[in-house]
Amino acid sequence: MIRVVIVDDQELMRVGFRMVLGAQADLDVVGEAGDGAQAVRMAAELRPDVVLMDVRMPVLDGVEATKQITAAGTARVLVMTTFDLDEYVYAALQGGASGFLLKDTQPDHLVSALRSVAAGDAVVSPSVTRRLLDRFVGAGGTPARDASELDVLTEREREVLVLIAKGMSNLEIAESLFLSEATVKTHVGRILAKLDLRDRVQAVVLAYETGLARPGVD
Questions:
Q1: Which of 99, 146, 178, 217 has a CA-to-CA distance to 58 between 20 and 30 Å?
Q2: Burial of 28 (0-12, 13-18, 19+ CB in 10 A)
Q3: What Rg, from alpha-carbon coordinates, does the chain have?
């Protein structure tokens, strides 16, 4: 059973999410919060698997709440937003969110995303990732982080990281590099471990911020 806390300052949104999730046999809504501060307290008390987090809320916004929850290790966070180019979303990803979806996402996609995040995967579509990074990292600009962070990677691992940054799945990376999917999975695991990254979302952000991958470049 995947335990979920829903966080949104609009009660109508919480009701809608609860109805969708409550219809699934493997999802259990264990709590609801109307602001980020309440979400942090609830996550600490209930220890859910996933917090479904709005970003724009009173008292404490979803970005700061995400940082506090992920730093404490109390739950994984899936951010929901109305705008796919919301600057708060990028900040939330940097702060530890495992991905984000638009609030008008189809119910089956929402359910699938929650299951993926609970299983340790990240959820950010390639197209949205590129648009976000295009806007907030900046094409052709000075890298935001020192590329020497990547020196611990082998050449093959760097290749895999570039393809992760393009939004490719393990299977797509395997086909591109003529490797088995199991080998790619091993490479991904080593990349995350060597760079002390939680998941693929953080890997994508790091690849762009160090200049290894560039927005708008295939």
A1: 99
A2: middle
A3: 17
- Which of 91, 71, 208, 215 has the alpha carbon at shortest distance from 150? 208
pLDDT of residue 81: 82
Whole-angstrom distance, CA of residue 46 vs CA of residue 91: 25
The predicted pLDDT at position 145 comes to: 77
* Residue 78 near residue 113, CB atoms below 8 Å: yes
Cα 96 from chain centroid? 7
| Total-model pTM | 0.73
Q: How many residues does the chain have?
A: 218
Give how far the C-alpha of residue 153 lies from the chain's centroid of Cα atoms, to the nearest Å: 22
d(CA 71, CA 130): 26
pLDDT at 111: 92
Q: Which domains does the chain have, with CATH numbers?
A: 2-134 (3.40.50.2300), 142-210 (1.10.10.10)
Mean pLDDT, contiguous 10-residue spans, the chain (218 residues):
95 93 94 95 96 91 93 91 70 82 86 87 67 60 75 95 84 91 92 88 84 69
Q: Can you list the alpha helix ranges (DSSP code H) found in the chain?
A: 11-22, 36-46, 62-72, 87-94, 107-118, 126-133, 155-165, 170-177, 181-194, 200-209
**Can you list the pairs that 39-45 forms with residues at least 24 positions away whose Cβ atoms lie under 8 Å?**
39/5, 39/7, 39/65, 39/69, 40/65, 40/68, 40/69, 42/5, 43/5, 43/69, 43/72, 43/74, 43/75, 44/72, 44/74
